[in-house]
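MODEL INPUT / OUTPUT PAIR
PAIR INDEX: 1
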Amino acid sequence: MSINLALILTALTVLTGIVVALDKFVWGRDEKASGRPAGMDTLVEYSRSFFPVLLFVLVIRSFIFEPFRIPSGSMMPTLLQGDFIFVKKYSYGLRLPVAETKILETGSPERGDVVVFRLPANPSINYIKRVVGLPGDQVVYERHRLLINGQEIALEQHPDATSQDPRFIEQLGDREHEILITNAAYMVRDGVNTVPECHYFMMADNRDNSRDSRFINSIPETHLVGEAVRIWMHMDGASWPRWDRIGNKIQ
């Protein structure tokens, strides 16, 4: 059972806001005001204390930044399981909390962006992948080589790569980043994909270990949550935090 934090936060903010408004404009703010219903003093005091805090958190989380934890190794080596990241919510438009209705256009994903999105089959689940194909693109993935609109994307072996750490450097637009090809003989979901309008083709950096658009199809623009921009903590299980990852920009 998933918990809808946005819904809970919005409901609490609205509830405490209503109580504060009633106390100010209907019941009167004086502690001895006779208009306030009996037994409401405690609720009013709690609402006065928590409403500003809840409203601040709701605005920050809905429109500016939202924290997100990396749950798996599908984005290795860029992101590790246990990374805590900031997602910039206003990169691709401002959306109302819960309803997810866009109220202001602020931009669109660019090729190479690392994006958090809601899974179309189950919008309560968030995924994080890299934008590979833009609307109208033809994306071909064959024998671990990526072609976009007939042009092969540059790929070279990382200078520090080993058989245990099979890293490569890929150039997507202006974004140079590392990817993993853990099994060169494993051809996972090779094929040709045409990206529909208002959709984006997502792939993970761990190319042989990810459920991305090769399996779940292109992602509609309406399901985008925001752009992953920076790591603010790394902690996986009971181990000590990885201090060297804190503050790293996501490439």
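PAIR INDEX: 2
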Amino acid sequence: MHILITGANGQLGQELAALLTRHSNVSIVTTDIDTLDLTREDEVNRFFDNHHFDYAVNCAAYTAVDRAESQPELCRLINADAIEILGRVASRHACRVVHVSTDYVFDGKGHRPYREDDPTGPTSVYGATKLEGERRLMQAAPDSVIVRTAWLYSPHGKNFVKTMLELGRTRDSLSVVCDQVGTPTSATSLARAITAIVTGDKWQPGIYHYTDEGAISWYDFTIAIHRLAGITSCRVTPCLSSEYPTAATRPFYSVLDKSKIKSVYGLSIPHWLTTLEEVLARLSGKR
């Protein structure tokens, strides 16, 4: 089995590559912007002409949510145009696509976990371009699988967990929003789910939701991070989103219903606290 991972230098890409290389019957090729520009169809065509892939897992995205408000064209180029190109080229080469999307496609005004068929209503440029990417991919390559996720973190790169660890160790106090609720998701956990999809025999195209189990606010998540990391010198206080204005509007509630992916692919999903403990252990060098 030959698998392409795009955006391989990111959090999910690194975790996915590490997992897939452990499979003896899997051969992977990893690319990022420096080796494959997904916004150039001629380049993507040449790349696929020179390689055979059974699956392409797209981990590439424009994820600077606030900056996207002032760079909508660039955000759309990466999150929508490039995804359509990948889908079109992959389809011509009989290659199935797995694409990672986001909870930001919803408006965040709900009060129960969002299902895949719930009405979308993004409130930010980032969310709107990710939704556009979903739709254009399914038009170009209807046999694709789209996995929406949320609150992703890992031992790699910049993310909320690593930021809270740094701030907790360098500041005496910290305010974190308490009125935004979602589910922290380890990139390793998501990578395991994607690995199960592409290495299994239950391929069913469509949109799926995947996060770790549970729901929590950013404030409570920070409390858990500091407690598990043994950080006691930083006082964490809750604040409202209105007290911490950002360029892009965040969903207030973005818990995702994972019933479909569990039913179709038979996945067992860990609780966010379990996966947080795993990541913190890796960051501390204990695993």
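PAIR 2 NOTE: Residues 72-92 form the longest helix (21 residues).
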